[in-house]
Each structure stands twice: as structure tokens, then as C-alpha cells.
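User: Can you predict the 3D structure for this chain?
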Amino acid sequence: MTSFTELGLAEPILRALTDAQYTTPTPIQAQTIPHVIAARDVVGIAQTGTGKTAAFALPILHRIGENRPRPERRACRVLVLSPTRELSAQILESFVTYGKYMRPTATLAIGGVPINRQVRALNNGVEVLVATPGRLLDLVRMSAVRLDQVDVFVLDEADRMLDMGFIHDIRTIISKLPSKRQNLFFSATMAKDVSELAAAMLKDPVRVAVTPEATTVERIAQQVIHVDRGSKANLLADMLKKEAAIDRALVFTRTKRGADKVVRTLVGKGIAAEAIHGNKSQGQRERVLAAFRAGSIRTLVATDIAARGIDVDGISHVFNFDLPHVPESYVHRIGRTARAGAEGIAISFCESEDRPLLRAIEKLIRITIPATDQRGVKTESSDEAPAPRQSRPQGERRPEGRSNNGAPRSNSRPGGNGGGRRSEHRPTEHRAGEARPSENKSGGRPPRQNGNGNGNGRRPDQTDRQSAPAVAGDTGLGNVGFMHRKPAPSHRPEGATGERRAPR
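Assistant: Here is the predicted structure, written as C-alpha cells:
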């Protein structure tokens, strides 16, 4: 297909497309629109930025134009579910733009805004309702909307819905829909749980896949920079200052608190930046997005909640300040750049403990992402993770003159705390038969106690893998001359490796 006129769309829709300067359909649009017009169920798999919204909005408007009965009170003919407020607002805007000469009755049902306004908008019924699952169920429980008159049900960004834990809400909503309806199911990836949901929802669907599942846009240049956690914020600020080619930059963090912290760092270095996440009100999010679109804000920091809802042209760079725990989220994050035929750059910061996340991403997208360190020196792939430190065999004595972490012992005094730090307390008398602080079974010096029971003089989150076990019955007050019980035998729980896990 080389023109929208060949797809059989109604004349008012074609006029609106001409006004919007859309002349050639994308592959997902060319393959999907004829099946939707024919009232077939469709499962569409395409990357973000390929025109999925128009692929279902255009034929739905065509079907509305063919038969336009007056909507019943508190009912809708078309129901579109999406995972985020921003994406829902953009979908509604698309229906309004493409239906410019049809003027369909359409409204939005999302959280973050007063619900009473949405209740009033639904009173007389609408032709198109675009909603997020949580707010839609709130309206259903209030009897503000009925779902038994839905002719077309659209589930957009289905994989993201499941990632965000909406599966139970989706099933509840589907149970309230009429059995005779058309279903349109769109997703950028097709994991097992997404396939199961599609199989339960669709009837003899047509499958449209314009790209291999979970592949990344070819026009995006991807890069990984291996960097320490404490250096990431400064590295990001330096890159934003020095890279003249950055028009608009979108930075993704794992947490809302992390997004705010990155913004404070950037602003402190003279870089205009704003954050958008779930703790922001809908009004704040809309104002920040409007400023980002207008170019008054060059850098936007967001959590994954916005990965599917930011449709802004001209994003030249996407930075993964934190790698996502879900590999599919990487596809949607970097899909915010290289839209509408443009090119883009995606740069990911990878800490040493995030290497498993990087390997999972590379396995999903089926490529090895070029990697460097923060100085720009080329490094090995994600498979070359540092070898774990070897633990000392059980019962083996520590070499003479060595501390808990294997370093040479310095300024150690007989009967002291073994860490080079002087005690300000005199030792007290000990009961007969009890071990003194300077005695243990191995004949070596006891580990210094730090009040946390880890026996290595460090904070609990800095416990060394080779540290000696804590003394049983420790008072938690440190080695200040208090009586100690007999040390418990050293052992390691079965299956414990001492390896550090990636943050959840």
C-alpha cells in the first residue's frame, strides 16, 4: 500500500489525514486497517513509534461513520485501555485529530484528576472512551459507566499492562464486556503471559507482526558505558553539557526518588531538567510534557511509567541512567527516540552488579551492545563479569598478621581490638571458665566487634565475604571489655555463596 486512499477509509477521514500531512501508511497500518474494517479480531505486534495508534483509530472511526446510533446513557461503543495517563491522552488526541470532520463523542477516564468531571462527561454516553484500568473500574463501581454496549474493545500496550500488574483489573473489565464484540490487541513484545492473555481474549484473530518480536529500531545507535554508581550523575551531566548534538534528552531511572535526585544534580550543575513520575499530579505532568515538547526544557527524567506515554518528536537521545529489571522495558524506553523516520542514540549506564540485567537485554534484542568505560576505552561484553572472590575454606586459619579482609594488620596491640583503633575502656574481670576477648579456639586474635554483630568493623551493607563469624551472644556494644561467651563454631549456611544480588 502506498496511499491511505487504497485502504478504503471514509472520505472525512482522508481529509483529516491530508490536513495532518499523512500520505503513506506505515507497515502496521497497511496490514491492520483492512482487517479491522472487516470486523476481524487482530493481534498486532510492532515496536513503539511505528504508528500503532492510527492502525486501530482510523478503521474504528470508519466503522463509527458507517453506523452511528445515538449512544445509550452511561455507555460507550468503543473502549480503549492503555497503561498510562499520558498514553491515554495521546490516544484520545489521535481520535480527535483523525475524526476532525466526523466529530465523534469521545472522553478520557484517567486517574490524577477529579472523577466528578468524568462522571458528567459519561452521563449521556459516548462513542469512544479511552481509559486506564484503575479509573475505569472506579467508574464502574460508581455505576457511572456501563460496559455492556461495547462493540470494539482495544487493549493497547498489553505487555506493559501486565508488567504493571494490571492483569486482574483487565480480567475484571473483560468479564463485564458483551461476548459479541470485536477485539484488537496490540503489544510491542509477545512474552508467554501476553500470549496467554491474547488467546483467552481473541476469537480467530489475524496476527500482524511487522518486525521480529522484541527487536530494537535499527535507526537507534546503542551504547553501554560501564560506570560506578557514584559517578553516574556527574557523567550524565558532563555528557549533556559537552554533546552539542543533543536536542532533547530523555533519562530513565528505576525509582521516583531516583528521578528527583538526578534532577537536583543536573539543576545544581546548571542544566535545566524536570522529572515526571507517578508522584506528580496530572497537572504537573502535563505542564512538564508541554515544556519538553516546546523545547523550553531540554532534559526530562522519567520512570518506566512514562516509557509508553511520551510521544514527543525530536528526542535525539535516550539515557538509561538505571538499567530496567524487565528486559522488555528497554525496548520501550529507547523507542522514544528515532520516531517518524528520524535517527536516535540510546546510551545505557551499567554498574558492575547490573551486568546480569545487561545480558538479559542483549539476549532479548539478539545483539551485543558496544561497550566502553567512562573514559571511552572499549571494554569486553557483558559476559566478562568479574570473577567472584574466593572464600577461605571452613576451619582454615587466617594467615598470621592479617586482618579480616586479608590486608596487613597495622598498629595492632596485644589485647587490643585488632583494627588499629585504640579502646578507651579498660578490660574488666572475667568469670572463670569463660573466654577472654583475646582468646578464641584458633589461637588468633578475635575480630573487632562494631555493634552490628558482623565482626569486621564495617557497616552491615559493607560486610566482607571473608569476615569471621560473629561471636555468639554478643551484646552489640562492641569490644569495650564486657564479658563474652564462648565463640560459636564457624559455619556457613548450606547453599550460601556470599555473592551480592542485583537490587530488586
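The chain has 14 helices and 14 strands. The mean pLDDT is 78.
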